[in-house]
Amino acid sequence: MNKILTFNMAAKDEVLSSTVEKQFQRLMSNKERDIKSKECSWIFDGKWIRAGHIHYSLKGETRVWETVERTTRKGTADAVDIIATQKDKDRILLVAVYRPPINKICVEFPSGLIDKNEEPSEAGERELREETGHEGKVENISVPVYCDPWKSTENTILVQMSITDDAGKQSLDDDEYIEAFYLSLQNLLKSLQSLKEKFDIEIESKLYLFALGLENGKTLLK
Amino acid sequence: MNKILTFNMAAKDEVLSSTVEKQFQRLMSNKERDIKSKECSWIFDGKWIRAGHIHYSLKGETRVWETVERTTRKGTADAVDIIATQKDKDRILLVAVYRPPINKICVEFPSGLIDKNEEPSEAGERELREETGHEGKVENISVPVYCDPWKSTENTILVQMSITDDAGKQSLDDDEYIEAFYLSLQNLLKSLQSLKEKFDIEIESKLYLFALGLENGKTLLK
């Protein structure tokens, strides 16, 4: 089930220019960078996150960087974000979630932490069921991508699913406030903008960028 | 210059179903949610970030949530992320940045903090110049979107730019390690995957989701 999103790229189908290849070969072996081992000292050590300082060396100088980490990672990634669609009905399943840090409802992909000994695909199926009450079939799974690498190690895996069952019931923890709804896939960016204009909600960045990519695809791609 | 990304949506061109409209009207006025004022107590109080507890009330119960914030926001958003393209040359300008929290090179959009009294469009032009040495023309600006609303208030504004000048020189701080490069816009997702397969780099989530949206646009959209 752990198929990486390769989109049928043929083995010899090269997409990187020789300029970029050489640039990255140099970049990865660059002695000027001269990065030394990383040590962390935590000042805030919570149940879900911890924050403090990284001590490291770059270009020969010792430096300090402020950082935050999730404390709960069990495997290669913290979480899954689920892109769950019904293409024949032109719709994507999203959630509206109350988020204490911004004290507002935020519109997002269904998502959740990957449990111990759980495959990302299993986490995707489980979280979709828990947050939306729907069953889905996993179609593709991404590499782990990093949500805010300037400040944290937090990462997530994108699980693309097709929704197979509209019945069911949410199963939420007492401190969760989540509601599922559909938007048009064809008009995803416009729909998100319309929600933002009419209601006092915020939009999560990964979802917005997916919508922006879809919209740009209409005009940018041949 | 602060045009919001509306993509020529006609004033009466409704994209939200009446079901979603009603769902959000109910959601925004829901008494069950019963959210009370938010207070924060900081335990780690750094120069760039602070972390600690939010004390709030949901569904009538007092609760505590762990949170982190940027300390540097001057206006409505912390930062800009720049989608800088040359469409006639089928390419997008990206950066490879050393990120201490993950102790690796991460591939990202050019980005940076919005300065005091600076418009997002100005921040986009300045950061593109500083990080890549290129000049660009701002074409569209998004609403602020939230990067990790489960844990922080951090937000960013997407600035779409067309690159107008290939000359120029980077202007970086001493603790920055950033290199600019072009990838194909048509094959953005494949190119990112190829970079990840060949080199020990990571990919930032907003960039990955934009690429995934573009790729999905090829097959999902009519």
TrEMBL record, chains A, B:
UniProt-listed SUPFAM superfamilies:
Nudix (SSF55811)
Q: Which residues does the UniProt record annotate as the domain Nudix hydrolase?
A: 75-205
Q: Which GO terms describe its biological process?
A: nucleoside phosphate metabolic process; ribose phosphate metabolic process
Keyword tags: Hydrolase
Protein origin, superkingdom: Eukaryota
Q: Which GO terms describe its molecular function?
A: hydrolase activity
Query: Has the keyword Calcium been applied to this entry?
Result: no
Protein known as = Nudix hydrolase domain-containing protein
From what organism does this protein derive? Amphimedon queenslandica (Sponge)
